[in-house]
Q: What sequence folds into this?
């Protein structure tokens, strides 16, 4: 879990993803469309993929990917991010981190 916490703080917006996950891709595109350049960790390309998935679940993710961290804090997965975007609460959260 320590590694995941370090990785989640590498940049102001961090997304844990899998290269084959369409929901991860949709979340990445949303942030890019908002002008945010997130750090993407494609965990399926990491030899410790299973450990990272387990750590993300222990941190409270409903599914291991996509997992979005803003300012080092877990925001959630696709449902939480999209709900925040639709309720206009995502942009103010990422505004300080715009490119």
A:
């Amino acid at each position: 879990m320590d590694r995941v916490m370090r990785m989640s703080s590498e940049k102001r917006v961090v997304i844990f993803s899998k290269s084959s996950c369409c929901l991860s891709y949709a979340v990445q595109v949303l942030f890019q469309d908002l002008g945010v350049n997130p750090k993407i960790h494609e965990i399926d390309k990491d030899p410790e993929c299973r450990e990272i998935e387990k750590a993300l679940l222990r941190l409270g993710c409903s599914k291991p990917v996509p997992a979005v961290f803003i300012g080092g804090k877990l925001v959630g997965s696709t449902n939480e991010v999209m709900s925040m975007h639709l309720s206009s609460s995502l942009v103010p959260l990422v505004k300080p981190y715009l490119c």
Summary: The mean pLDDT is 92. The two ends are 29 Å apart (CA to CA). DSSP finds five helices and four strands in the chain. The beta strands are 13-17, 39-42, 67-70, 73-76.
